[in-house]
Design goal:
Blueprint (H helix, E strand, L loop, with lengths): L1 H21 L6 H4 L4 H10 L3 H4 L10 E2 L1 H4 L1 E8 L8 H17 L6 E5 L3 E7 L4 H9 L4 E5 L16 H17 L6 H4 L14 E4 L3 E9 L2 E8 L13 H7 L5 E5 L2 E4 L10 E8 L1 H13 L6 E9 L5 H26 L1 H23 L3 E2 L1 H30 L4 H33 L6 H35 L1 H6 L7
Parallel strand pairs: 1-13
Antiparallel strand pairs: 2-4, 2-12, 3-4, 5-6, 5-9, 7-8, 8-11, 9-10
Helix pairs in contact: 1-13, 1-16, 6-7, 6-11, 12-13, 13-14, 13-16, 14-15, 14-16, 15-16
């Protein structure tokens, strides 16, 4: 019996942790758990990596609500390259970059997933500005530091130029298009850029954004600028120099162009050797500066994307309907708990406590994984509650049969749980396999809601097996050990 008391202590500790993390607060979790909104905003403004550097100000986890609960934007994008020109790893890397870009802009609960072999689906709950979202996702943000020595730089500001890096990209894209037999459909790449008037050749790229270690938007007097750090000992692209510091030291007094996606945004004069970093100015607005800094931190997309479709999605349920659904769910759980206690008495009381722990563990998983809660996902969760109750009833009925057959309390418990376990295991395992199939079907465009249903149902069934065979069993053994004299003389306490 000592083992069961040890299990009981562990279960109680787990339940307390789950309750602390899972229960919603009257204030947002962000603030209630120690989050600091002002400190977070300041940190994100100056940090090169806000996801990690500003974690201490974020507070704890939040529930993620899907588009059907809060509305938002759904964007389906397709790779512009032929499918045989990249791998699934490249597609996943692109999806990760897209997620970082949107996440760093402050858009919460974003879902980004690869679909098929050449598409990426992005869901942004609460987003109402499609143009802003698509622009942030799609822009390649190819930043170049370009050699403008001995060039009248003022006449090129705001103009599209052709650089050696862009020329190489165009040649590679054209070669891939020719190999696949597909036309190169990219107006920006096909647009003619100005070449160096002194040589008649593309302007020499010194370094791209890949050489940056950090990029942050800051306000300087009244203008927004980008402050950047150069990665140590980064090999630059200029054939005559090895590092950014060497190039700038040899070019003091000469202009160096800052080029974004082929357009010259500024051409400042180099005043000193720049070994560790510098600034980028270009009459940016606050949003433009923050977006550019974000894109430079996230890196260029491994695969260029085109938007296949955008869809503004309204919330299927309004706030009043959501609140009514929550109340209905609470009432349903209370009815089930009452039935279990009235019909099974002492075992029913143990089952009620186990069911509450089952609910807490589900909520804990939804917050910490996290899992996006949609209407189908909530439906899967509710079905898993029914499965949990069904498994408990099966155990208790086996237990009662053994007691009526003359078995002792401990023997009846052992036989009841062992006989019920095979039925619970087999039924839950078969349903989990079906959930796996549904999850695979949910990877196709437009069917992601099926995945949510499959995930919550499968998780609920897995947790159900734990609570039924560990939590309920532990509670029953401990309670019967503490009340053995009473239940031996009052079998009605066991529902017999």
């Amino acid at each position: 019996m000592r083992l069961y008391y040890t299990w009981l202590a562990g279960i109680v500790a787990l339940a307390l942790i789950a309750a602390w993390l899972a229960f919603p607060d009257t204030e947002p979790d962000f603030m209630k758990r120690g989050g600091d909104a002002e400190a977070l905003a300041e940190c994100e403004l100056i940090s090169a990596n806000p996801a990690e550097d500003c974690a201490e100000f974020r507070g704890s986890f939040e529930y993620q609500l899907g588009l059907d609960l809060v509305g938002g934007l759904r964007v389906l994008m397709q790779a512009e390259l032929p499918s045989d020109a990249f791998t699934q790893a490249d597609l996943q890397e692109t999806a990760n970059n897209v997620a970082r870009r949107i996440g760093a802009l402050g858009t919460a609960d974003v879902t980004v997933q690869t679909v098929g072999g050449d598409r990426i689906l992005v869901e942004l709950p609460g987003e109402t500005d499609p143009e802003r979202a698509v622009r942030t996702i799609q822009q390649t943000a190819l930043l170049e530091f370009v050699d403008f020595r001995n060039v009248p730089s003022g006449q090129f500001t705001g103009q599209r130029i052709l650089t050696t890096e862009q020329f190489n990209i165009i040649q590679n894209r054209r070669a891939l298009a020719e190999e696949s037999g597909q036309p190169l459909d990219d107006p920006e790449l096909e647009a003619e850029g100005l070449v160096n008037p002194a040589t008649g050749q593309p302007f020499q790229t010194v370094m791209t954004g890949d050489g940056l270690a950090a990029a942050v938007a800051q306000i300087q007097i009244s203008d927004w600028i980008i402050v950047f750090d150069v990665a140590g000992n980064h090999q630059i692209l200029h054939p005559d120099f090895n590092t950014f510091g060497e190039y700038t030291a040899a070019s003091i007094g000469q202009p160096m162009a800052i080029v974004l996606d082929g357009v010259v945004i500024s051409a400042p004069v180099i005043r000193d050797r720049l070994d560790t970093g510098g600034t980028i100015s270009g009459n940016f607005t606050e949003d433009e500066a923050k977006t550019l800094a974000l894109q430079l931190r996230s890196g260029a997309l491994a695969i260029p994307l085109r938007v296949e479709s955008t869809e503004l999605v309204g919330a299927t349920l309004g706030d009043a309907s959501v609140q009514a659904s929550v109340r209905a769910g609470i009432i349903g759980v209370v009815v089930v708990l009452s039935f279990m206690f009235i019909y099974y008495r002492l075992p029913g009381f143990c089952a009620d406590i186990a069911l509450l722990i089952f609910l807490l563990l589900n909520f804990l998983v939804y917050k910490t994984v996290p899992i996006t809660l949609t209407l189908p996902a909530i439906t899967g969760f509710l079905i898993s509650i029914g499965a949990a109750v069904d498994g408990t009833i099966l155990i208790f009925e086996r237990f009662k049969e053994e007691l009526r057959g003359g078995q002792s309390l401990n023997a009846a418990l052992d036989v009841g749980f062992s006989r019920a376990w095979t039925s619970i295991r087999d039924s839950n395992t078969s349903t989990i396999l079906i959930c796996g199939i549904l999850f695979l079907f949910g990877q196709t465009p437009g069917a992601s809601i099926v995945s949510g249903f499959a995930i919550t149902l499968a998780l609920g069934l897995i947790l159900n097996m734990f609570t039924a065979m560990v939590v309920t069993r532990t509670f029953l053994y401990v309670v019967i050990d503490l009340t053995r004299e009473q239940v031996n003389t009052r079998r009605w306490l066991l529902g017999v």
